[in-house]
Write a structure and sequence with these properties.
With 293 residues, the protein is mainly alpha-helical. Among the domains are: 30-128, Hypothetical protein, domain 2 (Endonuclease III, domain 1); 233-288, Arc Repressor Mutant, subunit A. It contains 15 helices and two strands. It has helices at 7-17, 30-39, 45-58, 62-66, 70-77, 84-99, 108-112, 119-128, 139-148, 160-168, 175-191, 210-213, 233-246, 253-257, 263-276; strands at 280-281, 287-288. Helix 1 (7-17) packs across helix 11, helix 2 packs across helix 3 and helix 2 packs antiparallel against helix 8. The structure holds a DNA duplex (11 and 11 nucleotides).
DNA sequence: AATACGTGGCG
DNA sequence: TCGCCAAGTAT
């Protein structure tokens, strides 16, 4: 059988066509890589890039971010989405400052112990910031492996153990080469082997792709759950937080009430934001971003 | 294992 | 227009 996703081919292709992203520059340290990985969770590159540049200038080290207020961090997160990530990154920066001498850990298990860092991000930091040989599995890699190796139209439901094992066997021996290979796998899924309309004519491993050989069968697995947004609590929470991000300081209950008409849903979402620590109530009954008063 | 969690671009 | 999709994590 032909070699699937050949490392020499993949890395050669990556060196030629990879996007010039700021967190891939040689002078970008582990902190920059970590910040980028958190911001990129479920969020497109183009939206992340300008915010990442602002953050690196403003908070060039974990301790610099840790010294900021939660409110400043949430406001600087802007509209990247899933703002709990901002709070968790701030908490991770605090832990790195106090427990790890202001140095982003390189060990996967240590990384996993930090807030907001899961199976993907821990391995992404170990590989991309520290050049380690460890499988890095995100949605792009799952799709590339599903097609090129398994001949399926798309990846089935995630299974951490199986997904990691799938990539482990592909990984070349040497550390830094394996890390570059991991980046190449992700890049292929991001710009060529994309979900909707794959650009197979531009694919460096077209001739060994199991999906091509199988005649490009359609995805046969269980239907993926479609996420609604309009009218959901997520939208309402977003509206509420948007009021606070745009305000210079604490706001009144009436200002928050204007953000959504349904009182029951509004109250429920405000409560959940208070529980999450994304909003605080001030002593005089106003509402603010955490620490923003 | 399913579900909650933001936001906006694109076909 | 509107559903799909984007470098996931926590519970």
């Amino acid at each position: 059988m032909s070699v699937r996703l050949d490392p020499e081919v993949m890395v050669g292709w990556f060196d030629q066509v990879a996007r010039d992203l700021p967190w891939r520059r040689p002078d970008c340290g582990a902190w920059g890589v970590l910040v980028s990985e958190i911001m990129l969770q479920q969020t497109p590159v183009n939206r992340v890039q300008p915010i990442w540049l602002e953050w690196m200038e403003r908070w060039p080290t974990p301790s610099a971010l840790a010294a900021a207020s939660q409110g400043d961090v949430v406001r600087a997160w802007g509209k990247l989405g899933y703002p709990r990530r901002a709070l968790r990154l701030h908490a991770a920066a605090t832990a790195i400052t106090t427990d790890h001498n202001d140095i982003v850990p390189s060990d996967v298990d240590t990384l996993l112990s930090l807030p907001g860092i899961g199976e993907y991000t821990a391995r992404a930091v170990a590989a991309f910031a520290y050049g380690q040989r460890c499988p890095v599995v995100d949605t792009n890699v799952r799709r590339v492996v599903a097609r090129a190796v398994h001949g399926a139209g798309d990846a089935g439901p995630p299974s951490t153990k199986r997904d990691l094992a799938d990539v482990e066997v592909l990984l070349p021996k040497e550390d830094s080469f394996a890390a570059r290979y991991s980046a190449a796998l992700m890049e292929l899924g991001a710009i060529v082997c994309v979900a909707r309309t794959p650009r197979c004519a531009d694919c460096p491993v077209f001739d060994t792709c199991a999906w091509q050989h199988a005649g490009r069968p359609a995805y046969a697995g269980p239907a993926k759950a479609v996420q609604k947004f309009a009218g959901t609590d997520r939208q309402v929470r977003g509206r509420l937080l948007d009021v606070l991000r745009d305000a210079p300081g604490p706001v009144t209950r009436a200002q928050l009430d204007a953000a959504w008409s349904d009182p029951g849903q509004r109250d429920r979402c405000l409560d959940s934001l208070l529980v999450d620590g994304l909003i605080e109530q001030t002593p005089n009954g106003l509402f603010s971003l955490p620490g923003d008063h």
